What does this fold into?
Amino acid sequence: VTSAVTGMPLTAVIRAAMPWLMLLLSFLMIITYIPAVSMALPNWLGMS
It folds into this structure.
């Protein structure tokens, strides 16, 4: 959809989005595999 709207080739769209996707994936891995990170907010709010 983005490629059609902007007129850019699909490879250029993917190349431009790749750093952001890697950043999101790295944050997902951190939140998933380090329990202290995902439990910080509930702990700060006194929920656990």
User: Anything to note?
Assistant: The mean pLDDT is 93. The chain has one domain: 2-44. Residues 2-44 form one domain.
